[in-house]
Amino acid sequence: MADIKTFYLPDLGEGLPDATVVEWHVKEGDTIKLDAPLVSMETAKAVVDVPSPYSGTVKKLHGAVGDIIETGASLADFEIDPNARQRAEAESTGHHHGPKKGVGSQAPDDAHKVIASDDGGEIDSDGVAPAKREDEGTVVGAMISGNAVHTEQVSSAGGVKAVPAVRALAKKMKIDLARVQPTGAGGVITMQDVKNASANGSAAVGAAPARPAAAQHLAPTLPEPGPAPSRTPVSLAGKAVRTSPPGKEAMGQPEQLKGVRRNMARVMADAHAQVVPTSIVDDADLHAWIGKQDITARLIRAVVVACKAVPALNAWFNGKDLTRTLHPHVDIGIAVDTDDGLFVPALRNADVLDGAGIRAAIKRLRSSVEDRSIAASELSGYTISLSNFGMFAGRYATPVVVPPTVAIVGAGKLSHDVVAVMGGIEVHRRMPLSLTFDHRAATGGEAARFLKAMIDDLGLPN
Asked: Which residues form the Lipoyl-binding domain (predicted)?
């Protein structure tokens, strides 16, 4: 009797309950070796290459491309090859491969319990900050399995050589990889190849290559589709059209949230349930600035100054045990808006960076977010957040505080305002500021002093 093993979707090290199938590297009936690429899964943080836990024949794949698989649910069935190398039953892979627990099942008593969102920092449920531990978060480019690292391997699916992260980027940018000119070693398509193809429009999905003239007569000529009928309040008979609220038939097709947006929905709901938010707003006068200055760098410097002046807002708060952790360093979570959803990478050690260091760090973080190569460790653990929404539009806001952090600063759109000065009026450039804080962990006075410290620093000439 054949030895059939079921592989369950492991915990990919990010604390998320599910992941989305991006690409299967095998099909049912294929033979696969231990640790060979099995499937690429998209989490809220990255595209993860999951290796095969067995050597043998793939009997069944649970889920198609685009399907959401819950952590602990069946991912694939294998018929084990008794003559091939297999991983020992007791050998750790760095991930949990057991079946999904049923409702009411109890976790082990020694399980590590954390009260924190995936996009914030971490605090143990006993209120004590966790000891530093080895991060086994799986990210693009590496998968930790015990103490060994399996580098992301190139697959040749569809006759195209590319790693899963490149395939995911091509899918996002609607690029046909079969039409991209590879520049990597051995004909491998790189991230830059996909970006170049997107920029010059040479490999858009759906743009079929031109056919030879001799073969064009073989294809039937189809009429060009006419314009869609316009919607008007008058019918063809000249009478007013009866209107009614749209029913189920008139509504758009529901779309399942996946990846980043799915995690964002969870984080925002969790924050709404836990935090007691209060906002305070004011304007920083930039009239004294001399010459051209880096607005983002000045804004981050002001946040650092305010954190030093009022440490209560540069903190983590555990609402269950009513404990708080004040941080001597300043790690700022920078909100980055993308088509896939919101990312919040951490600008580490902002309190020791100069203007050039801040700009270089932000550029690196934005680039790694855009190509989805950012490590999971860089998307958590910040001590305070910043949302520079004013680069798009808006003056004031009530941004969401994500536990366990205590505060988030929002910077609005710069404007030229008429202000009263001694002896008359002048037009000054000003920056609207919004500070939302968890009122359980900080007082209104502390928040007001924090905002004043920011305003005072932003008001300096340079």
From this structure: 4-79
